[in-house]
């Protein structure tokens, strides 16, 4: 989940309020990694919206704190190469997020719960389609430090983590599903520039990351989905490239268009999302 907090430095000590909405589309293909695995294609569409409050000057003249609430709806479809089996996960989510900024330094933390229904259709009368509830509980955080390179350009090193606990409801054991945990670490940097055209602030940027699931514990994660799939991503180092374009129109209105390409051993995926924000 990405948030764009542009233009809050000209506000008072706060709180100043904002509302935002975001649409997202994502796709991913993973190769089979074992004799009991299947190559599969995943497509996801999601919508989320939130409200937040900003306080300025808490510990210094150049700092600010943003605290917000987010709600979402996610719909994911998975198909498996060489089989008629299809899986769908859909449901709402709710979370809290905060960002602290002081000068070029910033830190963010997000906690989110997704309450999904997993339905598997095997494409035949036997076995019959099954449906199991699952809860994804996640926490993620990042540290960044933005440094001016001159000529309106900048670089922003970043590092972060995400931890997800997938918990299945009743009937999961019969389908071979078991609760699991996943800890991911990532590091990289964002490069960009900014300028103003006819009162519109424009900031294109490009972020590059490397990441790895350093701990995968338990049965089947929600990203694996298939009952026969065991966690196989542990220790694999992968890459990510995130282009973005942020636009600040003034009067509290801003927009952000961003994308993502993920790649590595047996993995190719990407996403695109649009974020619209109004701050008062």
Q: How far apart lie the N and C ends?
A: 22 Å
Specify the biggest β-sheet: 12 strands, antiparallel, barrel
Count the helices. How many?
A: 0
Unreliable stretches covering 5 or more consecutive residues: 6-11, 221-231
The helix fraction, in percent, is: under 10%
In percent terms, what proportion of residues is strand? over 45%
Structure explained in plain terms:
The protein is about 0% helix and about 70% strand. It contains no helices and 14 strands. A hairpin with a 2-residue loop joins strand 4 and strand 5. The radius of gyration is 20 Å and the shape is globular. Residues about 5-10 and about 220-230 have low confidence and may be disordered.
How would the blueprint of this fold be written?
Elements: E1 16-30, E2 40-56, E3 63-80, E4 86-102, E5 105-121, E6 130-145, E7 147-150, E8 153-168, E9 180-193, E10 195-197, E11 200-218, E12 237-250, E13 253-264, E14 267-279
Antiparallel strand pairs: 1-2, 1-14, 2-3, 3-4, 4-5, 5-6, 6-8, 7-8, 8-9, 9-11, 10-11, 11-12, 12-13, 13-14
Summary, kept brief:
The protein has strands at 16-30, 40-56, 63-80, 86-102, 105-121, 130-145, 147-150, 153-168, 180-193, 195-197, 200-218, 237-250, 253-264, 267-279.
Which key features would you list for this structure?
mainly beta, twelve-stranded antiparallel β-barrel
